[in-house]
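Need tokens for this chain, all 211 residues.
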Amino acid sequence: MTAPPPLCLVINGPSAAGKSTLTTAIQDRAEVPLLRFGLDELFRMVPEHWGGGLPGARHSDLGFRYEAVEGYAGVRRIRSGPDGMLMLAAMNAAITAMLRTGQGVIVDGQAFEPEANRDLEAQLGELNRRGSAVVAIVELMTEDSELEDRQRRHQHPAGLSLFHNSQPPQSAEPDLVIDTTGLDATQVADLLWDRLVVIYPAIQSGHAPSA
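Here are the structure tokens for all 211 residues:
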């Protein structure tokens, strides 16, 4: 009996699409440990003066800065400077390093930075081709009207979700697209789970013989 290669599940979508809720649901159901990693985890590591949220941050132009989005009242987007791009590259390297050790990972949202996303997907694609990891990239979709309602209930600016929904998807070629409009969190988790047990049976049975 040998352990299967680790799973890397990438969950993308606009703000309020349900990425974090879905990540937790899959972690709870899985019979293999899946470490959560993504932008929120990365931003917790960023020194304040390289982040965009601290007034007068000295190095936000080098790290991450917030800019107002024209046409979306009260909405700001994150722009990445050279140090910020290095941090995103480091996050990608950390994800692939965990997979190389045999540790499964759920990526709770990629950046809205095409260069960083292409870099991660290239590294994951190589691991997948070598049989060193099983990779599944999921894109969550939701209609504007429902995103607006969800953001309102969570007391976040509704425009952020609508702005994200107007942008190109983080992944150009996701393995699975789930439209969450009209679905509750359990229904979305069921849809993804049914797909995962086909491509990665060990998620429901723990360690299993490699193919």
